[in-house]
Structure formats: structure tokens, C-alpha cells
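Journal club prep — side note

Before the paper discussion, L.F. wants everyone to see what a predicted structure for a comparable chain looks like in C-alpha cell form. Sequence:
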Amino acid sequence: MRAQDTGSRAKRSRSWFRGEAGIGWMMTVVIMGLAFGLRIVGLGQPHEFSFDETYYAKDAWALWHNGYASNWCTSSGTACPKDAIKDAHLAAGEIADANTLILHGIAPCRLIVYVSDKDGSADANNHCHPVTPGHPDPEMAVHPEVGKWIIALGEARFGMNPFGWRIGSVLVGTLMIGVFIRFVRRLTRSNLLAGFAGLLLTFDGLQLVLSRLALLDIFVAFFTLLAVHLLVKDRDWLRERLPTRPRRTGWRSVRQMLWRPWLAASGVAWGLGLGSKWDVAYPMVGFGLLFLAWGAGARRRNRIRRPFARTLLADGLPGALVLLPLAAIVYVASWSGWLAHHSAYEQSAMSHSQYTSWSGSGKCDGQSWIDNSPKPDAHWPTVGSGGTLKHETGIAALWQPFESLWAYHHDVYVFHTKFLQCTTHPYASQPEGWPLLNRPVGISAENDIKPGATSNPAQNSSTQTCTAPAGSTCLRQVLALGTPVLWWGCALGALCAIGLWAGARDWRAGIVVVGAGTTWVPWFLYADRTIFSYYAISMLPFTILGVVLCLGRLLSGSPNRRTGAAILGGTFLVLVILNFAWFWPIWTDGLLTRISPVTAGNFWGNWLSRMWFLKWI
């Protein structure tokens, strides 16, 4: 009877676990559905290229159709075809550039600048098929291609319009929330805390805005989080397989740990992150060191002799031979279109640009960078003197595209680290204030909407009319601002996590410290150039995790302490949701009156009532 009772209890335990797991997955799906609904509503508004969408949406289209980023016609450079301008039926005052014509339904292929293979002349392509042999004029894209390929998938399915170039961000932003829920579920073994974390991220305004724009930062945040999640799965995988009798197994346990499937998957995610933006390199290095610390700690706990030496072999070797090569392969593969068309870049002025000729020192003159002693004859190693192409044969011909790509990377690095030092921007900010939302970024704005009037139909199709009193106006805005209550609470959560890691030796708090630190602190190195607060989106999941771990610590105490913790957590979540609802109009291009709340008598529909600080305007 006793054996039967034990078996029955084990069976019930397994059934309960499956039930808990099922509830966890259902909760994940429900919260992801909620997040998706919030992010897709009104996705096509504003009907414009908002902020840096003017680069990434068009780069994505060119990648999909041409294989590489290409130049477009403008009103000040290569003029757009007259027939295309005529077909667009532009209103008086509208600028005849590629952005305007695309929004008026002109086929993008008519607006790409082509370079003639015969005489090198450049002209916009009026008929989508060049009359004379030529190739699209390559553009210097200053960020890698993965995020733009994701944007391109949406454009290929839904067309070259705001919905098409934003839907990829919606899907990735929603997936980010799902991955975060599973990540917290793995760390805490609690559906309650995982759901709490998922809802906090769902109701963040910055994550909402970036999930509704064709910018690259939501992809950076997603792939960083995914890579860390897979590293934690590898940590669990390792601990399940460490020998319990190390003296009998010797170094055989090292050989058994060399193939690590979750580590390999993490390498792919890191490669995709680097293929979105280079700043993923910082958390990759930080978590690489934490990964080694996890392995050494697990072996020391199991009383395995020489834990650090075994960690360097059993963990460091797979990292060096599996994770890093896979990340590198994925990253280089993301440039496959560039590599296939390397000759277009070698023939262009980019192979001997101001970045190629950089001497190593210079100074700012206004917003321009002045090189102290530029090298006028500098060019890529794949290009001969006078800009003539080198036509390599054999193995050298196979290596040539990669040599050109390396030279291109050098030029992009010079652009980011030197030539941006002189630039200014009204929404630029210093990183020390990012966790407290010191300077949000204005993504889009439509000002001076008269009382009784609707929005400009070219920007917003809403028929809602302005209710401002006479003498005032309304406006629409999209502001890249996090939910204030959430971000300020997360700042406290990050400080709490530092205490948990240093005082309670909670390894999970180390993820908060390393994750938030490596996605935030490196930006201080670039504080003298134009940088924006929305870059901090990558640190948000880790600071939310800090809040969750601290709340979980409180919930594990006495009954009175658990009750207080539950009230505290529930109150915080409700305040975040209410705060989210309050700021919803300035995240989704809502129509608001401009004048002060007291004068207007309409507190809810007023813009100034949401501008809590002067720096938010």
C-alpha cells in the first residue's frame, strides 16, 4: 500500500506539473494576443515615413528587389521622373521626392536611381525596367541588414505602404513579449510572476511605439533577449547533465559537454542581433563572461575538482567553436545580397569616400567633421588606382567580396565613431537620464489643426474633428516615451537586483545587472555624438526582471509579508496600466488639443497635461 501511495502521489505530481505548464503556455498566448491587438490597431497611421523609417523602409524594399540598399530620387539630388510626378497628382506645395511619390502610390521601382553600365551616368528609372543596361546606384547603409530583411517581408506581403513596412515590427515586438514570459517562467518557475512580467512589458509605451515603427531597435531588443533566454536554457541543460560522482568520471564529463544545442541556438540569436545593430556585441561579451561563471559555479557546487579549468574546456571550448562561429556565420550570411553585388559598391564612389581616406584625427567645424590630413588616394584594396576594378581570378576572386565587405565595415565604423561626433539633433539625449525618461523622441507630429477641422488626409485618414476653442489648435503626435510609472519602478528594481546579486547571491539577479549594464553603460562611450533615448529599449526586459525578482523575494516570506507583496505588486500593475491608458494618444497619433488643461476644461483630451516635464516637449 505504501508503494502504491507513493506511485499515486508521483503520478498526481506529474499531472499537476503538466497542468501548470499548460496554464503557463495558455497565459503566454493570451498576453501575446493582447499585445498584438494593442500594437496593430491603427498601424497605418500616421500615413508617412516617420523618423528614420525614411531609411529603413526604403532600404528594405531595395534589399528585397535589388539585393542591396539603393539610392532614391530626391528633390535636391537626382530628380524623380516627370511622368511619375505627373501620375502622383501632387497637391500644391508637396515635395516631389521618393517618399511623397511612394505615399501617393507610385511604384517604388520607378524611383530608384540607376547607373548606366555604358557611361556611368545616373538617372531615375521611370519604367521599372531600365531602357539602357545599368544597375541600381548603391547607398551607404550604416547598419546591418537583418532588421531590414524582416521589414522587407512585410512589404513583400502587404505592399510598400506604412502598414507593410511596420507589420514586421509588430510581429517581432509581440514575439518579444512571448519570449520574455517564457524567460521569466524559466527563471522563477512561477506562472504568476511570468504573467506579471509579460503584462508590464505589454503596457510599456516605448515598446509599443517601437513595435509600430520600421526602425531597427525592436529587433535588437528581441534578439538580445532571445539569446540570453537560450543561454539560460543551456545553463539548465548543463546542470541536468553534470556528473554526480565526479571522481569516477574524470575528464569524461568534459567530452560529454562539448555539444550544446541551446548554446548553438544562442549563437544564431546573437548573430541575428549583431546583424541588426552592432551594439549587441556588448551584451554578447557580458553574458559570455556570465556564462563561464555559471559553469564554474555549477561544477564547484557538485564538488568537481578543478572547476575553472573544466569550465574553460567544457564551456569555453564550445563557446569558441560553436557559439562564436555560428554568430559570425549568421552575421555574414545576412550580408549575402551585398556580397552578391559587391561590384556595384566597388564601382561607386563609396570605394574611395571620405571615410576611406580618414587619417585618424580631425575636428568639428560646426556640424561637419574636418579631417586633419585626409589621404586623397585611399581606396578599397579591391579597387585599383583611379577607381578601376580589380578582376581577380581563382581563390582571390572568391575572397574579393569579403575583402570589400571588410573595407565597407571600416568605413561604416569611421562614420559612426568620428563623423557623427559633430552632428546635433533636437531629440538627442545623454544616456545617464535614459532610465528616468529624460528626453523622449518625437517620432511624428501634425501641428496646427484648426478647430472644427480634421487631420491632413495625406497623414491621417481619421474623420475626428478638432474640438479646441477658437484661437487655439489641435495636434497629433507619436512620442517615443516609456510608461513613466513602469520605468521609474524598474529603476528601483534594478537597484534591488544589485542588492540581491551582491547580498543574497541570487544568480538570476546577475542577469539583471549584466543585461541592463551591457545594454546601457556602453552608450556613455558615445555620449559626444547624436544618440537617442529609445536605444534603451534593450535594457527594459532586464530591469522589469529586477522588479519581478524583488517581488518574488517578498512573496516567499511570512503570510503577512506575502499579502503585502501581493498588494504592492497588484497596485504597481494597475498604476502601470492606468498610466499606459493616459499616454495612449501620444503613442498612437491621437488627436489632442494644445492649450493648457485649466483653460481648455478638457483634461483628458489635452496634450499639455501629458507633457510632465519641459524636456518632454
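L.F.'s comment for the group: The chain is about 55% helix and 5% strand. Keep this in mind when we get to the figures.
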